Amino acid sequence: MINKKDWKTKKYYHGPSGAHRRAVYKAMGYTTDDLSRPLIAIVNTWGEVCPGHYHLDHLTRTVRDGIWKAGGTPLEFAAISQCPTASLGEPMMRYDLPTRDLLAFDIEAIIEQQIFDGMVILVSCDKVVPGALLAAARLDLPCLILPGGCMEVGSCEGEQVSLSDLDEVIFGALPMGKADLKKIELLEDAVCPSPGACPIMGTANTMQCLAEAVGLTLPFAATARAVSAERLRLGKASGEAIVRMVRRGETARSILGAKNLENMLRVCMALGGSTNGILHILALARELGLAREMNIEKVDRFSRTTPCISDVRPVGKYFLPDLHEDGGVPAIMAELKPFLNLQARGAGGRSVGDWVKLGRESLKRGRRTVRALDDPLLAHGGIAVLKGNLAPISSLARMLNNTIPSHRGPARCFNSQEEAVAALKKGKVKGGEVIVVRYAGPRGAPGMPDIYALLATVVGMGLEGKLAVVTDGRFSGFARGLGVCQVSPEAAVGGPLALVKNGDILSISLPDRSLNAEIPAQEWKTRAAAWQPPKMKNAPGILGLFAVNAEQAHQGARLVAHPAPWKKI
Asked: Are residues 242 and 340 in the same domain?
């Protein structure tokens, strides 16, 4: 039995004044002894709408076992989760990013109302992991994130495949009548062979790795396979660890300090992770009140000084299970040791130095996916901040999965992804052009949709290396090809992207980290004076809230009550 201490629920559930609360829980079979222990929430984002979360219902049982074993009482509740696959390229994709904020609100509301001492949040996919991180920061209880892990790698006709391979066929070759229908059928049955997050360094696995890098998971929790005995043992260990954290008063904010966020960003750059990872790091920093310590300027600085050492798809050649076998996040951190703050705290009383020690032992056994610092994939980070007259604050581009590092060409402007994809499929976009998709930002869409379907269409049609894409929306971690996203400020608040016209010459340079339009200064002023905000799109519910309350991309695109005002540029 755990030693009695003034944990949070003691004053609410102990003694005569707690009888009402105890009575409600006794209706569900809990006893007086159960309710005298620390009450630990298990936030279960299980669902049948995406494979990343399908196995979590079983995983929660092991967490419960661990909590009981350590002397706590587990109380499970369900929270939302989703996968944007069903809405790729469709207007419904606008709901994808808002899911992050909805989940944070969901967790916040239940935890605050029901009163808990700590929580374990089970999450896997793109917006669900960052939603859990925002909730952990906001609530500041003892908290552990338990990632769901990655799925197995698919195999089709002797080749390793993942969902992105099918996407590029569906969005590109199929509409042109060039797709092998039998191959599509084979891929459909092969690319998702088990539950878990897709086994490449897309946004889901980027965020699982970053949750570990920031210190809110147990070691190796980010990369262990979703369906494995190791994952089940991590569940039990997480249940035991959260009770110990309650006893020590070890809360989320006691872990999530400025140095942890810096380590998180270093690891993101070393992984060549999804550009969405930067959006979520910035949102977490603002949630923690650490915007001065972690901002887009620091992202730019760390990008220039952090080598990219992870040889994992889509920027490398291996898959997530290979990274795990090489030591996972601890191995990455061990190689990154000179760049990390080793005293930064991690969950369970550990420090980053403990992760490094574990990773060093793994690297001694050999490596495939973790490159040495003196032999990196890139001497700089896998994500770059581009600036210029089209992005006076910032924009982002992945550095490794581009067939061309620079591009200069005439603009072809569209006010939605759907319009751009339709024009591309009809042959209305020419090689050499720069496709501009604007009004896709946090407020303009509203909801800042993923523009992956457009890049997948470019690749699938064989146009990779011949076209570039610029948008104030987001790109999936699956995306390949030269694309610049998260242009800030967005077009909907008068950002320069709103002023571009068809035929304007745009230039993108990844080596120079620049994004510019070759438009005379006086012409810029004339267009800016004439620009009017577009009529607001039909935006019910949370989309309507994003239209007026979302922060800009360089701030993390959070939904906040009082966003900073934006002036016409």
From this structure: yes
